[in-house]
Batch of 3 targets.
Target 1
Amino acid sequence: MANYDRYADAKGFIVVYPSTKKDNNCWDVASKATLTNNGGGDSTGLVNMVKYLVQKYNADPTKVYATGSSSGCMMTNVLLAVYPDVFAAGSCYSGVAAGCLAGSPGSSPQSADPKCASGKNIKTGAEWAEQAKAMYPGFTGSYPRMQTLHGTADHFVEYLNLAEQLKEWSALLGVEFTKNVTNTPESGYTQMVYGDGTKLVGYSAANVGHTVPVHPQLDVAWFGLA
């Protein structure tokens, strides 16, 4: 698990490490409840936790961020899509697009429809965006900024899912691919920049499997907390 404690101590922000014991320790990213704003699923539970902490510690509600790896990255995508008015940005590792597992009997490798993790749930950006917007049909504001990383050698949650995430967030954020930057943030990683790079970036990690090692400093910088 990533550790952001020293960054939180240095910069004065709150960090929380939620987890689930359900479905082989995987967040529910498949049910109608979790994929609906205030639907009562895992996503709602996490948002209620955020709202409680914001109130208890008088935190800035405009500076709430989500991050996670594998199932945590899947949930990061879901949180930003279902609660775009709660989160300012997300950064995550080795996950799938919001809605990729919609209707699946579960969300873990043991319970899920394998179509999503195997990279066979392919849609256009417009199709992904339509599905995401249906999760919160009353929302008319701007969607959160997104940063997502995936390894080319990932055969547990296939690398093809990186492209699907980027298509979804490109459409939601209204930005197009502009350029690749090689060996960023380290050798073997390629940064994929959309627009001016302030709303959406992806990272392809050559020969890295499941999962891409967490880069806390990269996350904190993306959140504007560095």
Target 2
Amino acid sequence: MSLTIYSESMKIHLPATFLVDLQALYPKTWVPHIIANIPKFYVEMSNDPLIGSAMGYFGQSQLEAYTWFRSFLMVEAFFQVPVFIIGLRGLWKGSSSIYVLLLIYAASTTTTTLPCLAVILSTPISPTPISATGISLTAEQSLLLLSSYIPFLLVPLVMTIDMAIRVQSLVAAGQEGQKVTKQE
């Protein structure tokens, strides 16, 4: 069952990655107008300080302040996307050889999602989405963002623990097999 949750999570994450997250990295000429509106709509609705800043919607100073987040988007583009594809294939085939890669992916994703949640949790709550002091969220926007980001922390966190146990079991079985071979 957990493997199904992992594959479904990757299937959900992949289009979101291309349609929203990675638009901060694409040259503007690569993105059709209708698709370019997706992150605009999302940020207008949620006031997401991460995507809004990375896209430059909140001004140059916010864009520069969120360089760290843009580096996480690069990890998403060049590490996570290939892992989604390879991982989905490995999970579909039922291959245990994918466990090490999924362990690395899950630990990396957990590590990069935690600071994103910290930003959302530390963003001021106010009656209006943007205050004179900078970015703020309404209570509803904060709940929306938390409900969006928390699953992308919890699923990889559980996957990290699960894959570590699975890899450890494979290593233990391999070591046991070596002992039997040496005794013969």
Target 3
Amino acid sequence: MSSIAKSVLRSVKHGRAAWLRTSSAHSGKRRFHRLVLGIETSCDDTGAAVVDEAGCVLGEALHCQKEVHLQSGGIIPVVAQQLHRENIDRVVQEALSASGVSVAELAAVATTVKPGLALSLGVGLHYSRGLVSRHQKPFIPIHHMEAHALTIRLTHPLEFPFLVLLISGGHCLLAVAQGVSDFLLLGQSIDIAPGDMLDKVARRLSLSKHPECHSMAGGQAIEHLAQSGNQERLTFRLPMRQYRNCDFSFSGLQNIVYNAIVQKEKEEGIQEGEILSCVKDVAAAVQHAVAVHIIQRTYRAMLFCIKNSILPSKNATLVVSGGVASNQYIRKVLQNLADANDFALLCPPPRLCTDNGVMIAWNGIERLRAGLGVLHSTSGVRYEPRAPLGIDISKRVEEDSIKVPKLKEIRWLAS
């Protein structure tokens, strides 16, 4: 373990560097529905929840490592692993206690096994194997992105098919959900995810030193400062405009932003690590550029799905989930896009957009009801840091070469 990782872990032991959220909907009444315990450890949050077949969240708990990783400027996998190990049993027991349910009453245990940080996924899988072995319970391996995509069916009565945009710190993709385990992948990020880019830009701007943002994660700080910034004072060239597909690229945009920051620092005569006087304008312009790039690719996905009768031409639905879906500006832009194309826009509540045990338990319920991937042995189960979602038809999207409206019209949607 590196000296930085050891230093961060020491700070956890000597202060409150993480938090635990527990909630309960346990009524004490006799239950008639099957129950699933969901366990999530794909990145830096340790989550657990008990959900029943009716979609009632009986109890949940979440241990968040945000404060720890803010100290180091990013997630250190070995630190995340150690914190998962230290907290997973407590989180699971808190969720069970809040729900008033014993392991014996569970129909199954569902756990994220792909994709994510290898060291983090390993903790959840190892713990779950022991739990289902001791109590002789079925095990349901969960794809993290499938869980995000299906969370909307917990909160809304939505039927298949629907278009899904998943945007987070680790993932960015467009897919059509045709069934519980039936997805068509239209496009995805070819490099980094939007949340990752926003976090890196926030670090380059030293927003942790800004008096309004010292306790915020990078993406949150960008969104907060952007509210009082002027996005028109800087313009960033958008990536992949020449490619008529649904893939995303945020690494190139990040480099363009970095170059603009260097130029502004020169103009103001300051060094890297100091706060630009125009930092709010930079934040607003960056957030706007990310939103417009997302709009362009999502617009093409809508047109492709309607053209090929993958979605109905009327009353189609766009579902947006993942941590970046909590950004209110990006959500507003997507609402404008949906309205302009006669799509309904549905988003889970913000607390279910980020990683949590509820979405894993609900995905377990969906799979249990459909009889998909319910295992009675964990011997062949392995965690997978990289795992595609569904059938990749992105080449077919590119072959259709669908034009989207001119950039001026796209920018209008984001105005």
